């Protein structure tokens, strides 16, 4: 897993600019929320004047209730309006944050699907999940609280100063001189808090990766009796995270305390000075009371900004991870710009007649292994099997073909048209793929199968299930197709899961079906059933299959034999078996394996 270094000041600026750009889809709601909040503050100022005047009239002018009703009614109206504006303003900013978060999740998912599974593997599934979930969630308070708070901290004190100065310039001066203390202190603790927050964020990513891996491999951990050691390790990482969180909280509490203290001292200073001036008669009550009412309101937005500063730090830390994903280069970007600029490369195909791989070399960045010098032309129908010993490069070849390694997409072509990263979705849309362990989702069986074709009718659903040899089983379930299956298909056997995944592939009726040993988990009767269905499918479509058991490839129209990352030979079963080459060796090893067993 790679972590992003702590952003320096210039990077922080660009992260803030990034966060600002992301607010565009909801800018109107954010502005409306801030406008309502500001209007609310103006009403608060007017309310303070009315209240002070009412009390002055009752206490010093001897007015009775009837004489001050003209002041009390507007005051009641203001209180009511303020409650409405406050609720509306908060709702609008929360709505804006929701919109921004959902747009951001979509953007990140789109980019991740372009980057392909290898990017996620390299950066860690847990860390990526953390960015997609916790990271995006961390933006909520940034947009819903910090941004409006930052606007109020400038607008509201300014509005109060504008009305206070003409009323009592001495009080205005006290406000003006004490106000900068709060932002100054915030900046002072800010950089320390920022460093700690970054550290905490990175530790959360480590924890996410670690947990994700361990939860996935829980069965193995249990079998190897390694749960105790792992628990210790998890406890250690959790403890590091706890320390990092406590460090952040310490700074947050300390700065909150200091900000509250500064604000309270400032209000107290104003109160004492007003008190003396009232005592010595150099100030009238109404003015003094207005200043006293407005003093806490003057410091309130600054204090709140202090408490939302944490949201700012979280938002910026999370943004760094998002920018890293969004800026991750698509390795074949250069090719993409070249190929899409030429009109013949914009795929407008009615059908796939052939798929070719030309001079394909793919080496994993962290090892010297991979596949080399691959040249291959696949027809549009027939069963093509890829065989080879473990580590010979079969899965890597398939991953390249499926577009999971964007840097080599330009070595693929359909109907002799070279592909670019932008075209890969065309190929992917035309491929149905079943890996060795297909992923099923927490949903009904019907939804899991229809994932490949959401518009499928009940008839198509049943047909696909029948083709995959799973219809009978589904019909025995009390809820049939509406049976809810757990995450990863819990509640089903390995073979049942695989057949549901097959049904998903069949329903798509994709011109290219790619399978990784589809019958590995099945009993011989079901295996034959599925083999027949696959053979039938291969009559009109291209079926590419990774075969680990050589007896399953007897009927293949072409067998591609991989050895040491290269295509060693290809041909029909009988021809290859008769040669004294890699395939014959594989057959020999398989026979020996059976004999030993
Ligand atoms: N993510 C990876 N990072 C680094 N090297 C890898 C990675 N995946 C595979 N390799 C290496 O690339 C080579 C080809 O691996 P690949 O998984 O394609 O073989 P395979 O024929 O599919 O093997 P198997 O039948 O065991 O699944 C191997 O030497 C393997 O060690």
Automatic annotation (TrEMBL):
Protein name according to UniProt: Thiol reductant ABC exporter subunit CydD
SUPFAM superfamilies assigned: ABC transporter transmembrane region, P-loop containing nucleoside triphosphate hydrolases
Domain (ABC transmembrane type-1): residue spans on this chain: 32-314
Occurrences of domain ABC transporter (ranges): 355-589
Localisation: Cell membrane
Primary localization: membrane
Keywords in alphabetical order: ATP-binding, Membrane, Nucleotide-binding, Transmembrane, Transmembrane helix
SMART domains in alphabetical order: AAA
Transmembrane segments: 28-51, 71-89, 146-165, 171-190, 251-279
Highest taxon of source: Bacteria
Membrane topology: Multi-pass membrane protein
Gene name, Swiss-Prot/TrEMBL: cydD
PANTHER family: ATP-BINDING CASSETTE SUB-FAMILY B, GLUTATHIONE_L-CYSTEINE TRANSPORT SYSTEM ATP-BINDING_PERMEASE PROTEIN CYDD
Any Pfam family: ABC_tran
């Amino acid at each position: 897993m790679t972590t992003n270094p702590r952003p320096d000041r210039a990077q922080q600026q660009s992260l803030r600019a990034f966060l600002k750009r992301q607010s565009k889809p909801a800018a109107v709601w954010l502005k409306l929320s801030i406008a309502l909040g500001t209007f609310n503050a103006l009403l608060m100022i007017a309310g303070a004047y009315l209240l002070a005047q009412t009390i002055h009239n009752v206490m010093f002018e001897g007015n009775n209730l009837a004489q001050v009703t003209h002041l009390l009614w507007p005051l009641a109206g203001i209180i009511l309006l303020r409650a409405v504006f406050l609720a509306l303003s908060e709702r609008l900013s929360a709505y804006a944050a929701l919109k921004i978060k959902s747009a951001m999740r979509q953007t990140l998912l789109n980019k991740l699907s372009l980057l392909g599974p290898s990017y996620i593997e390299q950066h860690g599934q847990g860390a990526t999940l953390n960015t997609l979930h916790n990271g995006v969630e961390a933006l909520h308070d940034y947009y819903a609280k910090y941004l409006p708070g930052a606007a109020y901290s400038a607008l509201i004190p300014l509005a109060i100063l504008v009305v206070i100065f003409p009323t009592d310039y001495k009080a205005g001066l006290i406000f003006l001189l004490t106000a900068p203390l709060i932002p100054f202190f915030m900046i002072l603790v800010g950089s320390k808090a920022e460093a700690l927050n970054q550290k905490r964020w990175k530790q959360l990513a480590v924890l996410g990766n670690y947990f994700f891996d361990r939860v996935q491999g829980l069965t193995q951990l249990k079998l190897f009796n390694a749960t105790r050691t792992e628990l210790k390790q998890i406890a250690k990482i959790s403890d590091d995270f706890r320390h990092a969180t406590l460090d952040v909280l310490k700074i947050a509490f300390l700065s909150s305390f200091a900000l509250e203290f500064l604000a309270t001292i400032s209000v107290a200073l104003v109160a004492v000075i007003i008190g003396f001036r009232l005592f010595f008669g150099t100030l009238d009550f109404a003015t003094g009371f207005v200043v006293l009412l407005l003093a806490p309101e003057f410091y309130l937005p600054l204090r709140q900004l202090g408490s939302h500063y944490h949201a700012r730090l979280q938002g910026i830390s999370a943004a760094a991870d998002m920018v890293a994903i969004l800026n991750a280069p698509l390795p074949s970007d250069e090719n993409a710009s070249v190929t899409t600029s030429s009109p013949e490369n914009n795929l407008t195909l009615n059908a796939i007649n052939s798929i070719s791989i030309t001079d394909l070399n793919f080496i994993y960045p962290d090892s010297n292994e991979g596949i080399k010098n691959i040249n291959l032309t696949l027809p549009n129908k027939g069963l093509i099997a890829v065989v080879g010993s473990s580590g010979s490069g079969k899965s890597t070849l398939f991953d390249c073909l499926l577009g999971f390694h964007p840097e080599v997409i330009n070595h693929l072509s359909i109907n002799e048209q070279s592909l670019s990263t932008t075209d890969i979705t065309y190929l992917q849309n035309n491929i149905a793929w079943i890996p060795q362990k297909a992923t099923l989702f927490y949903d009904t069986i019907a939804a899991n199968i229809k994932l490949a074709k959401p518009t499928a009718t009940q008839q198509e659903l049943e047909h696909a299930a029948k083709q995959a040899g799973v219809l009978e089983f589904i019909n025995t379930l009390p809820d049939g197709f509406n049976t809810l299956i757990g995450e990863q298909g819990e509640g089903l056997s390995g073979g049942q899961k695989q057949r549901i995944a097959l049904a998903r592939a069949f329903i798509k009726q994709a011109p290219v079906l790619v399978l990784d040993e589809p019958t590995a988990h099945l009993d011989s009767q079901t295996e034959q059933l599925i083999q027949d269905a696959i053979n039938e499918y291969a009559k009109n479509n291209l079926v590419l299959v990774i075969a680990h058991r050589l007896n399953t490839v007897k009927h293949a129209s072409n067998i591609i034999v991989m050895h040491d990352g290269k295509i060693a030979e290809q041909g029909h079963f009988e021809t290859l078996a008769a040669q004294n080459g890699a395939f014959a060796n594989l057959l020999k090893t398989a026979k020996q394996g059976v004999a030993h067993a």
